[in-house]
Amino acid sequence: MLRHASRPRAGFKTLASCTLALTASAAAAQTIADYSRAQRAMLESTMSQAAARSAGLAASAPAVAASAIVATPMPALRMAVPVMSPAIQVSGIFSAHEGAVAEVVVNATAYLLGVGQGVPGTPWHVETIAVDRVVLGRQGIAGVADGDGVRRVFPLPALR
Questions:
Q1: What are 112-136's pLDDT values in tens digits?
Q2: Count of other CB atoms within 10 angstroms of residue 119
Q3: Considering the domain boundaries, does residue 104 fall inside one?
Q4: For the chain, how many structural domains are there in total?
Q5: Residue closest to 148 by CA, chosen among 124, 118, 113, 112
């Protein structure tokens, strides 16, 4: 067992000599503080050169008041937003002893409307309800051509 006890001492001596060699070589290297001083000097030099350039440009440019730059508002960009007309569909009709009503769907909301009633949220009103169609009408606006016209006919499947 004595033989095994002497080996760690030899390993410790080798470890100590390697550590000493690494410490001696690191003594010649720069420290973090040296890098910081070099970076600080480079940054100060760059900043002073930039300040000199901007001072030279300001001297050669015509004088403009700072308040004039701030007081000039940017023109607002205005885009023509198309007016979206509500999506109107007719699902069907129901008849009762009082008369017939049409199921009119406006933007996924269903309404049961009789003849003469207005379609909510639109300028349309129910003109006629028949077995095979529903007709919606509205007041025409002179000079406006919107493609919808003053009447819309919604055909329904015929009953057999």
A1: 999 999 999 999 999 999 989 999 9
A2: 20
A3: yes
A4: 2
A5: 124
pLDDT beneath 70: ranges in the chain: 1-35, 43, 57-74, 76, 81, 83, 140-148, 159-160
| Alpha carbon distance 127, 103 (integer Å) | 14
Encode pLDDT of 15-27 as tens digits.
556 555 555 555 5
> Under the phi-then-psi rule, with left for phi > 0, alpha for psi from -120 to 50, and beta for the rest, what region is 10?
alpha
Provide the whole-model pTM. 0.46
DSSP 59: H
CA 143 to chain centre: 38
Q: Is the CB of residue 133 less than 8 Å from the CB of residue 122? A: no
Is 26 a member of any domain?
yes
Question: Residue 76: inside a domain, yes or no?
Answer: no
What residue numbers bound the domain in which 15 lies? 2-60
Burial, 108: exposed, middle or buried (Cβ in 10 Å; 0-12, 13-18, 19+)? exposed
CATH number for the domain spanning 127: value is: 2.30.30.830
Q: Which residues pair with 95 in a beta bridge?
A: 100
